[in-house]
Amino acid sequence: MSHAASTARSFVLAEFAGPDALFAAARQVRAAGHTALDAHMPYPVHGADEALGLKRSRVPLIALVGGLAGVVTAYLMAWWMNAVDYRINVAGRPFNALPAFVPIMFELGVLFASLAIFVGAILLFGLPRLHHPVFEVEEFRSASVDKFWLSVETSGETGRLREELQRAGASHVAVVEGEP
Amino acid sequence: MSVEIRTVGRAPDPLEPGPLILGTPDDRQLNDELLGHVYRPGRAWILLFLLAAGGTSLLLLGVTVTLVVGIGAWGNNVPVAWAFGIINFVWWIGIGHAGTLISAILLLFQQKWRTSINRFAEAMTLFAVMQAGLFPLIHVGRPWFAYWLFPYPATLGVWPNFKSPLIWDVFAVSTYFTVSLLFWYLGLIPDLAALRDTSKGLLRRRVYGVFALGWRGSARAWRHYRIAYLLLAGLATPLVLSVHTIVSFDFAVAQLPGWHTTIFPPYFVAGAVFSGFAMVLTLVIPARKLLGLERVITMRHLETMTKVLLVTGLMVAYGYMMEHFIAWYSGNPYEQFVFLNRATGPYAPVYWLMIFCNVVLPQIFWFKQARTTVAVIWVASVLINVGMWCERFIIIVTSLHRDFLPSSWAIYKPTWVDWSILLGTMGFFSFLFLLFVRYLPAVAITEVKELRHELAAHGPSAGHDAVGVPLAEEESNA
Amino acid sequence: MGLPIYGQAARPPGDDRGQRPLWRSLEELAAGRDEGRSPEFAPGADSPPDALSRRSFLQLLGATLAFAGLEACAPPREKIYPFVRQPAGLVPGQAVHYATAASLSGYGVGLLVRSNEGRPTKVEGNPDHPASLGGVGPFQQALLLDLYDPSRARGFQKRGRQLSYRGTLLELSQLAKGHEADGGARLRFLLEPSSSPLQAELRRRILERFPKARFTAWDPLSDDAARDGGRIAFGAPLEARPQLARADVILALDDDFLGFGPEQLRLMREYAARRVQGQELNRLYVAEPGLSVTGMNADHHLRMRSAEVVGFARAVAARLASKHGLASLAPLAEGARATPAASAVADDLARARGRSAVLCGPRQPAAVHALAHALNGALGNAGSTVRYLKPVLNDLSTGPAGLAALAAEVKAGKVDTLVVTAANPVYSAPADLDLEALLEHVPNALYLTLHDDETAEACSWVLAASHPYEQWGDTRGPDGTVSLVQPLIAPLFESMGEVDLLSAFLDQADLGARRQLQELWRQRRGGAGFDHDFERWLAAGLVPGTASPAEAPAPRTAAVAQALRDLPPAGAGGLEVGFVPDYKACDGRFAANAWLQELPHPVSKMTWDNAAYLSPATAEKLQLVNGDLVEIQLAGRAVTAPVWIQPGHADDALTLPLGYGRRAGGPVAKGAGFDAGRLRRSDAPWFAAGAALRKLGKRHPFAVTQTHDSMEGRPLALDFGAAEWQRGKGELEEHRGDPASIMPAMHAYEQEQYRWGMAVDLSRCTGCSACVVACQSENNIPVVGKDQVERRREMHWLRIDRYYQGAAADPQVALQPVACQHCETAPCEYVCPVNATVHSDEGLNEMVYNRCVGTRYCSNNCPYKVRRFNFLDYRGEMAPTEKMLMNPEVTVRTRGVMEKCTYCVQRIERARIEARVAGHPIREQDLKSACQQACPAEAIVFGNLNDPQARVTRLHHDERRYDLLHELGTKPRTAYLARLRNPNPDLA
Question: Distance between alpha carbon C115 and the CA centroid of its chain, in Å?
């Protein structure tokens, strides 16, 4: 925790045994006016979204766009390559043979959609980001195993927040500084 | 760590299905237990690994000979211009289907029992598709030009022919591999994070850390994660069906008697699922012992999969029946001859072996005794894989070796190169698989934890799993 | 290195030829090259890992002198004259045709040889030559491969000592001098039978110098019996020359006139022309022991042992005498047992008096020939369907008799010098003469040979012979027509011709063959403008007005009757063994020819082998199956042979094709088949009874290109009896016309200027397989070797399917040449992922070799299975001489590429260019596919379907036209014309 950049903000991390305690604490802290909350959990738990006040994900939209792009690309490719640029008599079949192009249109649709989803999701996660201030806390390792962590991001003084969280039943509270 | 295993056979109420998770482990226990094999490899692993490496070198030998000598090193001829190369391709692709099917379709249907085996099955898919992908490359006459099948701007100024099913194959297989990979990796990220945070040694932590991409289990991420994972599953499901449909087009689109039939797509897909599940069982039964996964891969999982085998087996049988019926009903002498020739011609033994393995054998799973005896399940699943290989042999070779003009009828005999490539791919497959279980969690820990949480927290109403088992009862009759 | 060879070829023979050290060094070079080749194939690249036969096989086609070939690739030093028009010098890229002639058993066939940049690359028939009429057989075409064969004999050796050409001539003239003292009493010549006037002249002059010298001609396939038959019947050794154009009924007594013999091409043309409706169909009866090409085509195949043929002929005579009042035949009918078949045949013959023909084959004894003459005489066929000509050969006797006499002299030590130009007598001579041992006793046994064969090993002098296409000379066709033989290329290797060798005994070798030839003809046809005439004859390929006039002899019945009485009684017990010339190896002279070795046997479809053919019933009796090895004992001799069950074969008889089981003569020849000649005796050269057969319990693998003989009731090679044809017509409707389809017609081929198509008339096709060799030669098709054929990887673009119908004992044979059908909606095309096989606007199904990646999907989807795949590197590294053989207008395919019939697209394009230059569209006469051109029966017709006048168009509208596998909707451009049979109702 040595470096303190100008943009440096402090994170108050609190470890809870289970999701319910976590959510309760989260509501308290929000009530106290803190908005930049996040929870770190080994697996997704229902209720986190409301507790932290998160909006719906935009991933489905990305998927739709990707999929359509794939289908269109596939058809244009096949049509241009077989009916325009290299128009050659193959077994007396039509040059622009839509039925024969369908399989590829489907496959490319799926491919593009999947890639869009994956890339989109990773970006929405804010990943890849190999270093993050929260990793400064050794105990935080339990976040991926069995413990539930609440992190409150604040620029102000953190003393009161720590007490608040301890009162909310945090088994461990730590403060780190760094860029969000 | 040893676990007391109750087989469902001794469950108090035979109608009540067995548990999905044995005992009452907490998340930390599950974590250590499921990652145990990554922390400390067993001696068995090393032994198997050497074996697999041997098989892989056999593959290298076969491929080298093929590249140096030419396709002439194989038994192929005219009329049987396709044989082992394509048989193995279809066989491996088929095997590659259970993985995505288990993870994706069962996820959509919210089948809780999938969680313990999906990672496993997905890995199997990837490695099987890798084997399959090998064949289109080495089976062409001039492998150094195989890339001509891709639509790239060539100086020749020519493009591929999008009317050819082989081009569809290129797109289908590459798409299938990519999507399976993404799906698999996305599911792996939280587990990689767990590995990062729990494994000893800086190097391991670093490596896993990099692959975990800095996953922090943040609720904001989980929110996108869930939906993304679900959507991928939604896309993968029709993809699975499409891939084997397109593979079946290689035959259905041709006009050869025995190939030119509209029943192929569904019948190929059923066959693929059939062989895929058989392969999962073949692998999972030894694996759960070796990796100590009995707690999460229970008899209930095995039994459910045998039921899938039974159902898909019946579908395959129906496919056979319809093929023969249509051949007779069409009144087309060429068609009729092909099916007669399959059952009575020079390759009749292979045909009847196929019938036994794919049609007769699965019927034993009508009986609970068979469904719940590990040895029986394992032997049956191995034989089913043999049977499905025979099916591809029958479809491809018997249709080709006696087609329209009797003057060009001939017999096909595989050479040692053919065999060593087939065995070699099995070796290479195991090779990759063993590496996987050595360095990555063979079970989706995160999902198992989530499942445990749901079962524990929500009690009887656990998910929509009709056969969900509340842990409370678990303990009471433990 | 190569240069000196060129020098020797180019320098006039007068001055000194190459020196020994040079020749040696070339030998060393050759050896060095041999090893040099192996790395190319070392990793097994030349054969599948578990079969190494192809390595040896490639080496035989491979190893040769570095550069020797290419350097020697030069036109002969004398001026030669192209067919029809003379080029203003050699235009590169412009092929030129030269007329020449090749002779077999001494009878010449006129040929046109295509020459690219001075390399002969294709042999075609000379339309103006009476024995060719434009057709050409497998042998003449395959000779071309021998020309470039790297394993050809080279140079001259005297007792193992290398001699230069000059040195040889000196040695020879000394040798000759030595014989002058006693007038050549101890000088003998054993010659290949010949009809060459030049040879006759040289022999005359040699006899002037050596009055006591003697000439003997030896031909293992001698037709002495025919001439002796003439002697018996007419008192003169006349030969019967059938005129089938006028023959309504043909009875072939053990005569394979469609499959073999000097008149094969002409007779096939005349016979086939009478098999199409329009003209009255002829009817062919064949009485023979085996199933020959002629037998396959017979309306009635009357199978009987060779010895029973005479009995049958007598029965016919008897019936004719008794029932049809041909009294003159009565004496010939003694003791004939009438059979229904014989009676029916006789009635048929009688009905067609003057329009029937009785043919008798060279395998039958003289008496039977005489009987045939008598029959023809009585039937009034003489002069109408059968002409009688004086023999054209320089020796009336070319058979075992002469050879036996010579052998006796040698045995008695009466021969010091024996000059052998006959083809490999040690191998082909009857076993009882044991020539091999005898030749040891001859101080100077000179052997002029094309290959280092068995005889070369036994002779003290071995002189490399120039290839027939490398020398000057002349020859006569069966009808007497003289053809001048001009070389197509200077000798590739140091060698001499027969003319040079004989002239050496006159000390005139320096003159050179051409000058001697010209001098001879100047004497014969002298006078003003001779030189111009001579050039014209060379250009045209024949000397006009040299055909022999027909004789009109009267048969002497009494003598014939006597001869018949003198015939040894048929049928001692046991099996009858019959010998036949092989359709591929002939008498063994083509055993070293890879094209012919791999050519499927017209009947059994066997390659790289011969076998002991026997009937299903006999096989049953002896419990034999195909490939069983048996030991055949005959008169104290025995050979081991694999058996092949031949439907239609006579019972209790074996047919053994000659020409295989070579002990020397190059890697191709060696080890293929067994030597039936070991059982041959000079007193029974063609058949003998009393053979015993012992099963050895071992098996022999055959490489056969068609392993399934039944059509399985499918409508493939359709045929109709003339009687039911009118009813059958309608049946064809469902095999032609546009198939129903929902697919829009994308291409209006009718709008194009050209719409290429082919028509194959199954009524004309005799299955002789000339087209297969023509295709192989024209399209640079590789030979793959026995192992690969066994694996069913033969590369022939054109195959002839042969199906048996009816009873296995005596089936009807259906023949069907199948090559790419050039379907308008080709199944092969739409499955190709890389567009490597696509359609041209003129309707060709094109194969783009350099785009092909070899998925082989097209082959799977081709219902006709005409596509061929290069499973291995079949060409490998070609020797220079092999490269010279290649047709420069056809790509040589590499490993991993699919190939197939192209309708000879290179010929289409050549014709297009020439037509453009000439400023007219491609006319029918401008363009022939290679198979069409070779076909002696005119069964294959290729052309432009958009030209209403074209023959192919008319045939496409013929009422016999149908499409193969029409119901698949492939719209093939090749149409088939159903075969018409003409069975005798009385024999139904």
Answer: 21
CB-nearest partner of B210 from A48, A100, A130? A130
Q: In one letter, which amino acid is C710?
A: S
Q: Is residue A83 left, alpha or beta, with left meaning phi > 0 and alpha meaning psi from -120 to 50? A: alpha
Mutation site, A46, A110, A112, interface B, largest B CB count within 10 A = A110
What is the model's pTM? 0.87
In chain C, what are the helix, strand and coil shares in percent, each to the nearest 5? 35, 20, 45
**ipTM of the complex model:** 0.85
C841 touches chain A (CB under 8 A): yes
- Smallest Cβ–Cβ distance between C834 and the set B77, B82, B160 belongs to B160
pLDDT tens by residue, B239-291: 988 998 999 999 999 999 989 988 889 988 889 889 888 988 898 888 887 77
Query: In this predicted structure, what is the pLDDT of residue B406?
Result: 93
State the pLDDT at residue B41: 65
- Interchain proximity B405–C716, CB inside 8 Å: yes
- CA C217 to CA C428: how far, in whole Å? 13
Q: Which amino acid is at C769?
A: S
**Does residue C19 have a pLDDT over 70?**
no
Cα angle C772-C777-C779, degrees, rounded to a multiple of 5? 95
**Partner residue facing A92 (CB), from C746, C828, C832:** C746
- DSSP classification of residue C512: -
Mean pLDDT over residues C576-582, rounded?
Answer: 93
Nearest-by-Cβ selection for B417 from C49, C869, C873: C49
| Structure confidence at residue B455 (pLDDT) | 67
Beta-bridged to residue C483, according to DSSP, are C475
Tell me the chain B residues in contact with residue C831 when contact means C-beta distances shorter than 8 Å: 164-166, 253-254
**Of A88, A94, A95, which is closest to C835 when you measure between CB atoms?**
A88
User: A135: distance to nearest CA of chain C, Å?
Assistant: 53
Interface test with C, best of A93, A95, A104 (most C CBs within 10 A): A93
How many residues does the structure list for chain B? 478
User: Three-state DSSP class for A46?
Assistant: coil
Q: Is the peptide bond before A128 cis (omega within 30 degrees of 0)?
A: yes
Unique residue bearing structure tokens 């044809």: C725
Q: How far is it, in rounded angstroms, from Cα C320 to Cα C328?
A: 10
Q: Write the CB contacts of B231 (distance below 8 Å, at least 6 apart in sequence).
A: A59, A60, A63, A113, A117
pLDDT tens figures, A84-139: 988 888 988 888 888 899 999 999 999 999 999 999 888 887 788 777 777 777 77
CA distance linking residue B21 with residue B465, whole number of Å: 14
Residue C496, strand partner residues = C465
Which residues of C fall within a CB distance of 8 Å from B82? 856-857, 860
Closest-CA residue in chain B for C704?
B410
Q: Does pLDDT of C50 surpass 60? A: no
CA distance B360 to chain C (A): 32
Neighbours of C231 (CB within 10 A): 17
d(CA B74, CA C49): 9
| pLDDT averages per 10-residue partition of chain B, 478 residues | 38 49 65 65 80 91 92 92 92 86 75 74 88 90 91 87 92 91 88 81 81 81 85 87 90 91 89 88 84 76 87 92 91 91 92 93 90 89 93 93 92 93 92 85 75 63 37 35
Is A142's CB within 8 Å of B193's CB? no
CA–CA gap between residue C676 and residue C670 (Å, rounded): 14
Chain A CB contacts of C826 under 8 Å are 91-92
* Mean pLDDT score of chain A: 80
- Which residues are CB-neighbours of B143 under 8 A, at least 6 positions away? B67, B137, C896
Phi-psi label, residue C380: left if phi above 0, alpha if psi -120 to 50, beta otherwise: left
- Asked if the Cβ–Cβ distance from C745 to A90 is below 8 Å, we say no
